[in-house]
Amino acid sequence: MKEFLLIFRADYKTMPKGSPEEMQAMTKRWMDWIGGIAAQNKLLNIGNRLISEGRVVKANKSVTDGPYMEIKESVVGYLIIKVESYDKAIEIAKGCPILNIDGNVEIREVSQL
Length: 113
Prior knowledge:
The protein is an alpha+beta fold.
């Protein structure tokens, strides 16, 4: 089994800001999706949703506001899963609710070194 990091990206400026009922429905879709991964014993770490503000420390030790808002997509959350291959990780990622709001899922294998 290999570990994969699923990185969820979306445009903070266009993310839905629906009614409480719509937001509750979106939360339920996320919890159902994550629960399905956990039920298969493939979930290693639940990453919390990230807020849009942050800071970036650069090589010269300067600190700027980040993430860079001129970049259309920002990291909004992550999970770590344990599956046999990239194909299995892709299969899981295809069910991610972020895809319903024009976001995407980056999949990266975690080095075991």
